[in-house]
Amino acid sequence: MILEAKEEVHKMKDEMNKENQERRNELQKLENRLVHREENLDRKAENLEKKEEQLKQKENELVEEEKELQNLKEEQQEKLEKIAGMNQEEAQTYLLNKMEEELEHEYSRRIKEKEAELRETADKKAREIVSLAIQRCAADHVAETTVSVVSLPNDEMKGRIIGREGRNIRTIESLTGIDLIIDDTPEAVVISGFDPMRREVARIALEKLIEDGRIHPARIEEMVEKAKTELDEHIREIGEEATFDTGVHGLDKEIVKYLGRLKFRTSFGQNVLQHSLEVSYLAGIMASELGADVNLAKRAGLLHDLGKAIDHEVEGPHIDIGVDLAKKHGESEKVLHAIEAHHGDVEFQSVEAVLVAAGDAISAARPGARKETLESYIKRLEELEDLGQSFKGVNNAYAIQAGREIRVIVESDKVNDTQASKLSRDISKKIEDNMDYPGQIKVVVIRETRNVEYAK
């Protein structure tokens, strides 16, 4: 047993020695690998150091070369400045001015060429269409006043209208919101008021009272109510007549009533319903000449000032009010756009919208169509002339043809032909941006050279 145990211990010892030897071998291999890697890292570090030194050397060389180039540049710049007789800033300013002049000249030349090209093809056709539309449409414009006159059968009726201690006339004025003027005018009573509809209600009621003969507060109240009902029916008939005359069908009943109310609305003394009818005719005529949608143009032309029917009741511009009314009562997007764009507040998206705006301008610009006070008229002419004289090189400016045209005389030595073309365009743009005016204003720039000598 002792021998076996010794043999067993000996075997175990041999196995341990073998295992230790194997581990030593593995450790030796690992150590060799690490040594090899360390050698490689050392070599790489040396190479990196060499490359770093080379880069530094190159960097120093580049810095030196850059200094040399800068010195050469400064020397060349000094030589150029001596040769040119100006420094760098002056040269830059000179070049910029030169380029600006060349660009301005090219810009003016191209504008002139483009305008000439467009005029050749567009002016003749436009004149034909507009003149044809104006010739075929001749609507009457009556400047309405703020008073109406009611005839009386006799002067005794004046006392009955006034009533005991003035109770009848006070009742009429309080119910209708207008003023009755009873003076020495024989057999006539004047109804005064700024609201044409209230004035019409008072006129109808007063005529009914005169015809009936019974004039007292209760009867006056009854007749005023009847007059309002009668006026509502009359307004509806006027609206239907307007749609029939223009051939515009399928309008909502409320829109027809609003059209009828335009009969009692004026703008610059021009009856708005007559103006709307004329715009509808003009837009339809021009649309037929251009091959556009005639029905759409006439419909939009008739409704373009719809907002003026209630603009005294609703806050906001008449365009916004008109768009809201038309949208509320089922009008198409094209009609809404034409109403919205007829004063040029938004960009045109259809030919019909342009035609409605053109018809509106033609109708408003017709001589005698609208009233203007002398003061505002003179002020507009002075403003137009001052605007024309505000440009450089302008010698004088004159507004002619009732402010429809401005003639600008320029100094020939300061403004050449191409600059004159650009000047006319700049003046027209400034007029569009800064002035309100009906129709259009023609801008004419005149440049002439005169040589004068005297024979002695």
Task: Please describe what this structure looks like.
- This protein has 14 helices and eight strands.
- Helix 9 (294-303) crosses helix 12 (351-365).
- The strands form three sheets. A three-stranded antiparallel β-sheet has the order 1-3-2, covered by helices on one side.
- With 456 residues, the protein is mainly alpha-helical.
- The protein has helices at residues 2-84, 88-136, 156-162, 167-176, 196-212, 217-246, 253-261, 272-290, 294-303, 318-328, 333-341, 351-365, 374-389, 417-434, and strands spanning 147-151, 179-181, 188-192, 266-267, 270-271, 394-400, 405-410, 442-446.
- Helix content is 66%, strand content 8%.
- The protein is elongated, with a radius of gyration of 46 Å.
- The longest helix has 83 residues, at 2-84.
- Helix 14 (417-434) links the parallel strand 7 and strand 8 (442-446).
Quick structural gist:
This protein is mostly helical and 456 residues long.
Strand content: 5-15%
Instruction: Tell me the span between the first and last alpha carbons.
Output: 165 Å
Low-confidence stretches: 138-144
Shape: elongated
Strand ordering within the main sheet: 1-3-2
Number of strands: 8
Oligomer state equals single chain
Helix and strand string, N-terminal first?
HHEHHEEHHHEEHHHHHHEEHE
Structural class assignment:
mainly alpha
In DSSP terms (H or I, runs of 4 or more residues), the helix count works out at: 14
Average of pLDDT = 84
In percent, how helical is the residue content? 55-70%
Rg from alpha-carbon coordinates: 46 Å
Describe the biggest sheet?
3 strands, antiparallel
